Amino acid sequence: MSVQQDDLDGRLSRHLRRGIVTGAGAALIAIYLGSVGLLAMMNARPVVANVLTLAQTALLAIAFLVGLLSQRTSAKDRSPVFWTAPLAGLVAGLLAAGFASLILSINLRSIFIALTPPLARLLTFGQPGISGAGLLVAGSVVAASAGALYQRLPHKVRRLIFPAALAVLLCGMFQEFIQVILQSNALFRWFAPWFYGWDGLTARGGLTIFAIALAFAALPFLVRRPGGFAGSAGSHPWRRSAPALLVLLLLLLVPIAGGPYIAQVFLLIGLYVLMGMGLNLELGLAGLLDLGFVAFFATGAYITAILTADSPLALAHYTAVPSFPFWAAMPLAVLGAVLMGILFGIPVLGVKGDYLAVATLGLGEIVRIVVQSDAAAPILGGAQGILQIPKPQIGGFQFGSAVSLFYLTLAAAIFAAYCAWRLERSRLGRAWIALREDEDVAQAMGINLVQSKLLAYAFGAAFAGLAGSIFAVMVNSVFPSSFQLLMSINVLALIVVGGLGSLSGVVLGALVLIGLPEALREFGEFRYLFYGLALILTMRLMPEGLWPAGRRRRRIVVPATGARSAQAARP
Amino acid sequence: MSETSLITAAPGASARKRINGIDIFMWVLRCAVAAIALFGTVATLLEGRYSLAQWFDFAMFGLTLGSVYALIALGYTMVYGVLRMINFAHGDITMTGAFAGYFVATGASRSGLLAAHPILAILAIFTIAMVTCIAVALATERFAYRPFRNSPGQAPLICAIGVSFVLEQTVRGMFGSGVKSYPVTPWQDAVVTPLGMRIPVINLFVMGCAISAMVILYLIVHRTRMGMAMRAVSEDKAAASLMGVDVDRVVVFAFALGGAMAGVASVCYALIYQQVHFFMGFAPGIKAFGAAVLGGIGSIPGAMVGGMFLGLIEAVGPALFLDGLGITAPYQLRDAIGFLVLLMVLIFRPQGLFGEAMAKKRA
Amino acid sequence: MTVSKRICKRAFAGAVAYLALAGAAFSQSSEVRIEPGAPIVIGGYWVLSGGDAALGNDQKRGVELAIKDLNGTILNHPVRLLAEDSQCSAEGGQTAATKLASNPAVVGVIGPSCSSEATAAAPILWNAGLVSIGTSATAPSLTAPDRKADYKGFLRTVFSDADQGPADAKWIHDGLKAKTVVTIHDGSPYTQQLTAEMAKTFTGLGGKIASQEAVAPTDVDMRPLLARIATEKPDAVYVPIFVPATAQILKQAKQTPGLEKVAFIGGGGTMSPDIMDAAGDAVIGFYGAFPDVTPEAQGKDYPKLLQNYQDEYGEAPTSGFVANAYDALTLLRMALEKSAKTEADGTVVVDKKALHDALFTIKFSGMSGDISCTADGQCSAFKPGIYQYQSADRSSFAIGTNPKKIYP
Questions:
Q1: Is B50 on the interface with C (CB under 8 A)?
Q2: Do C124 and C41 have their domain in common?
Q3: Contact B151 A556 (CB under 8 A)
Q4: Does chain C have fewer CB atoms within 10 Å around its N or its C terminus?
Q5: In A, which residues are within 8 Å of B330 by CB distance?
Q6: Which of B151, B169, B248 to mutate to test the interface with A (most CBs of A within 10 A)?
């Protein structure tokens, strides 16, 4: 559509279309949520007890967002008008009401199991017939208008309201998760009743949280001195290491304060950080895509199990080898993983790119299948795994609790991070990066491909073996079912989401991708839906990860702009 | 060979010698695998547990399963050929087609259409499944893959993994987590007996589907204007667009073709194995991905041969290689044998059976 | 130093001190007080995601149906089920258990579905004073007489493989008069252990186990395996695995020369109408080994539970363990009613230790058979039953008539 045609009629029809399209999109999202059963599940969860359920919040939020989006200026529409918002709300409301009456009039349940009469009642706020539909449409129009009004508020006000509303939503949505933390120790328990009742966030708690979050959001406006703050930052070395120290301190303290469950979650995150750092050496630095990474983890876990367990499958039980303490078994487990890494690496030396992904995937699966098989059961326990792995001990102190094991993992992770950091800046690290950029050129520059590649596998495997060793004592047992392909995929996902090649990215990625499913554990069957959506959204919004490595960023810019200019040249 | 020698050796000077060491290791590995396979085979054959007719049966059913792998692998290959991107969600796209086909099939079965006009009903099942798969594939392309068209790295792969989760969970949420069964028609049990060999019609049908799908795809890619555009985009996106090729259209077309293949694959799978559930796409998806790589990803005949080969190995492998060795529960190791063969092929030919050398592709 | 920096520093120092203090104040109480209007919180953990999600979902829904049948209340308090996903893995079970254990409102826990989950989770729960009642975790070691003290809080309303395996072996030997048997498991600890127990007893009885085979749960082409089994000329095949793989085996066995007439015996994993759809006519003649839950033996209505399930969730359960889960909730409810003290204002006080002890005194006749707990936590008195499918018509599914009870 050209600019000349931009007369009144054209503008009117464009606004009309925009309103209808956004409204229909919103209705589709609501219908999707309803038909996968999410709305029904969310309806059982209050955001604010006896006031607002999560399902209602979600529906209102959709309508609100529609109103908000309809007011955004875009290249096509530079001057959005207000009435598109209620129009979009109206369309969304009508479609949703039609959907609700469809559920009530036709029994679709033999196909869509979630389309039940209660869902229809939920959509119409519990009112029957026309009044329910009217309520739905009215609610949708009002919410959309509210969204439009919000969008028209000054930027500063929005920056105050948004975090406050988000805080209330999060506190309500993750109330079980938060309650577990609050209940875990006496000090939190003391003020918890103000915020949380039996069935969720109380109204007064919600208001308090809103106020607190508002105050926090306002803090920068109040205390910032004009100009000076941003200028003095950056160059000071203390400033660069401060965030890292802060994170470290938080990591040290949170598990104690949050109770055993939080410690357990952090312990899992720690193990994934270890593995992520290992894969980061392989993929982030050396560019070797590895989908069989879990094999090294399994090797570490099984070696620890066989050397230390109090079970008929332990080496000590049927050979002259004595039963090892954990501290002696762990280095052997790491060594075993390193050997595995080299054995793994040699056959696939010549395999590149996506072929390598399949080759390593195959190797990982072979390891799992063999470990699980009856053929190897006399040595590895088959499907029954190896039980009764003792916890590590120092003197009289036993690393029995999740908290103590977390500190063990943290120590291992810090050590590993130091190694990774040194490796990245070493001659070998530079060789890996050269290898990643172009193998042929790297070889021409005198880099020994075979050696560098095998070392990448070996170091990556060492980190995973260490994680596996701790994992074995964490669960006191090893089962082959723990070492699925999904684990390799998770590790890959976390380092890419965090930002390939960046150590902080690994930590951040693990926090998000392992922490998020944990926070969603109570959502049971739906948590992998959220996980998948999170993967797509993060990659869409930040394709280079949450915390990209500086060096890599430089590299990516060049081909991207080149391709873009080529696209622009297209007729 | 010890790892310390690898670490301490200086680069350059002793490179030649070390590569020889690695070469020796590789040869030992190859010989060991070959020797075990050979020994197992000879032992199995000497044991004489299976008759010739049984071996024929194994091969035929393996090829049938292989045909399904091949059809799924064709979908991977179409997308990879054009975009150089692994559509990790392809197995789950196949699964959505199987579900769509299931609802049509049960509807047709209840209304009596399936019994009265089986050909019409089967056509309807295929059409709906293909349309569903194409729609899902295109939606996936539009929302999840197009934004990454020009970005290197692993972001598209991770996004595809995310799509895979979302598709699985959506289907589970909508249609339940139980196993659904395709209705059975009498002709599915029909058998022809040429030369005294019992061959179920359905197996011939599925193999026929796979082969004709491959031929059609091959003709599209090599004989039509669109195919030419696809090959051009595959060679060099920027240059193709300078030559007037609409890259978006080509990519959409490739995804549509891949989706259509997924639709055919899903119905073929459902017709033979008669079960659909939300997780069914994962395992065949991974294996078909392996099959596509085995044949040389991006090559249409390669996907076909790779799929057939993998199916055959899975069916015959445990009996042929392991039975004679006296390994307990050899069928538990079926997938391991499949992947091992895949690895051996990649060791000999790192670019797959029909693939071009990687160096050429990276232009 | 800027003002903001100073504020941040102080706030941070304060937070650190507070957190350190808070950590020290961590404690665990031995009783749960449920004030008037407050819910009784029951924890649950099952596999709710991934390929085995159907198994755990069944059991979670079984508990939900049991709660619904109580009108959602126990001791005049509303009941809340906190169901966690434990992924059928040891680490998943451990994490779910840690989460439940750190919630002081939880009075008891139901689940899990997999023995690997229970192995890792039961000690954590018991160390927090919580009982857990397994719903399909059948590994014998979990209720073995020599189990460690950590496992004292674990009970189960599902039979042990050590009960079912030998019982099945006896029937196959004496009832079916089979001499040579082949077993098939699917690589899960449950089926592997069950077939191993069965094989042990069967050999002891003088029978011959021709081979112990295994498949992957996702396998679809079973013909090579079946051809191999056919060469061993067994009288029966013991295949206590789940619906998808069993259906393929049954269907393809009908097309395998030498196996057309061989008896196939399944287990609890296939006690659902789903197998009739999935296997079609091949299900006719298939035996199912499952506790005797027929109406005439129990006076109970498992078919009604199945109907309620269908009405509530729009699909049928995928296995028979929905009944075991239902009984777990009933058991916990009865023990709560017996052990909890109600104060004058309606506050219910649950002493976790007393609840644990009360569980061992409860006896009732449940959906999955008679429930009464031994000192080792085995509550399902395994009463063997053998059923045989008569037709593949899904609507005719009723344990007792189709599949028809043929033993005892």
A1: yes
A2: yes
A3: yes
A4: N
A5: 375
A6: B169
In this structure, what token pair is assigned to residue B21? 């060491």
Helix (H, G, I), strand (E, B) or coil at B209: helix
Pick from C228, C251, C283, C309 the residue to mutate for testing the B interface (most B CBs within 10 Å). Answer: C228
Give the pairing type, strands C31-34 and C348-351: antiparallel
C315 with C259, same domain: the answer is no
Tell me whether residues C39 and A199 touch, CB distance under 8 A: yes
The DSSP bridge partners found for residue C263 are C236
Span between the terminal Cα atoms of chain B, in Å = 37
CA distance A293 to A356: 12
* CA atoms of A419 and A430, how far apart (whole Å): 15
Same domain, C57 and C122: yes
Beta bridge partners of C43: C82, C109
What's the rounded Cα separation, in Å, for the pair C195 and C197?
Answer: 5
CA dist A468 and A459 (Å) reads 14
The answer to whether residue C21 is domain-embedded is no
Does residue C143 sit in the same domain as residue C63? yes
CB contact under 8 A, A566 and B242: yes
| Residues A404-425 as b or e (16 or more Cβ within 10 Å = b) | bbbbbbbebbeebbeebeebbe
Whether residue C277 sits in one domain with residue C166: yes
Closest CA of chain C from B277, distance in Å: 9
Alpha carbon B139 to its chain's center? 22
* C57:A186 CB<8 A: no
The answer to whether residues C220 and C261 belong to one domain is yes
Instruction: Provide the domain limits for residue C355.
Output: 31-159+303-372
Question: Measured between CB atoms, does B318 come within 8 Å of chain C?
Answer: yes
Same domain, C187 and C246: yes
Please check whether residue C196 lies inside any domain of the structure: yes
Could you count the other beta carbons within 10 Å of the beta carbon of residue A216?
A: 13
Of all residues in chain B, the one with the smallest CA distance to C282 is B184
Give me the tens of pLDDT residue by residue for chain A, a chain 571 residues long.
Answer: 445 555 667 777 888 888 888 899 999 999 999 888 888 888 877 888 878 888 888 888 999 988 888 887 776 666 777 888 888 889 999 998 888 888 888 888 778 888 888 888 888 877 777 888 888 889 899 999 998 888 888 888 888 888 888 888 888 888 877 877 777 667 777 788 888 877 778 888 888 988 998 888 888 777 655 544 444 444 455 556 676 777 778 777 877 777 788 888 889 999 999 999 999 988 888 888 888 899 999 999 999 999 998 888 888 888 888 888 999 999 999 999 999 999 888 888 878 777 888 888 888 999 999 998 888 888 888 888 888 888 888 887 888 888 888 999 999 998 999 998 898 888 898 898 888 888 888 888 888 888 889 999 999 999 999 999 999 999 888 988 888 888 898 899 888 888 888 888 888 889 888 888 887 776 777 888 888 998 888 888 888 888 877 654 444 443 433 343 333 333 3
Tokens (6 digits) for A469:
């060793």
CATH number for the domain formed by residue range(s) B51-361:
1.10.3470
Buried b (16+ CB within 10 A) or exposed e, B49-58: bbeeebbebb
In a domain, C131, yes or no: yes
Number of domains in chain C: 2
CB contact under 8 A, C231 and B50: yes
Q: For residue C60, which residues of chain A lie inside 8 Å, CB to CB? A: 524
- The sign one gets for the Cα dihedral A530, C309, C52, C142 is positive
Q: Check if the beta carbon of residue B358 is closer than 8 Å to that of residue B350.
A: yes
Q: What was the ipTM of the complex prediction?
A: 0.85
Phi, psi of A117 (to 5 degrees): -50, -40
What are the backbone dihedrals phi and psi of residue C262, each rounded to the nearest 5 degrees, phi first? -75, 140
Angle, helices B15-47 vs B334-348, to 10°: value is: 140
Could you tell me if C265 and C397 lie in one domain?
Answer: yes
